[in-house]
Amino acid sequence: MPLARDVMTKNVVTIGSEASLQEAIHMLIDKGISGMPVVDSDGKMIGIISEKDIIHFYTFSRDMHNIKVKEAMTKDVITFSPETNIEQIALAIAEKGFRRAPIVEKDRVIGIISRRDIIRVELYISEHPSSTE
What we know:
The chain has helices spanning 4-7, 21-31, 51-58, 69-72, 86-96, 115-127; strands at residues 15-16, 35-39, 45-50, 100-105, 108-114. The longest helix has 13 residues, at 115-127. By secondary structure, the chain is α+β, with helices and mostly antiparallel strands. The strands form 2 sheets. The chain has a 3-stranded mixed β-sheet. A hairpin with a 2-residue loop joins β4 (100-105) and β5. 24% of the residues are buried. The protein has one domain: Roll (CBS-domain), CATH 3.10.580.10. Helix content is 38%, strand content 20%. The mean pLDDT is 90.
C-alpha cells in the first residue's frame, strides 16, 4: 500500500494567518481548491481555512476585509507524516469527515492529500492489483 509521500500533492497552496478572509476567498477561487493550510510568519502550519470555515464565519460577520484568517480557521487539525500508510489517512478522513489531510514534517507542510487523491489511488489499485504485491 502506498505511503503519503507517494500520493501527496507537493506544491501546496498555503496562506498566512494575518491574511484577510477576502484574500483567502480569492485564493480558493483562483486555485480551484476548497481549503488550504494556514502558516505563521515562520512557515509553520497552525491551522486550515476552508470554504466551510468561511461560510460559518460569514453567517456571523459579513466583513471579510477586516477579519483575519487566524480568526476563522480550524485550529485543531489532524496531520500525518510522509511515512503514513494511505489506508490510515483514508480511514481518518472517512471517520472525521474532513476533505484534506496535510502532510507535515518538522511543523512544515510538505504535501497534502485530498479525498480525490485517495479515490485515485484506490481506482489505480483496483485496476492494477498486481502492482501492490
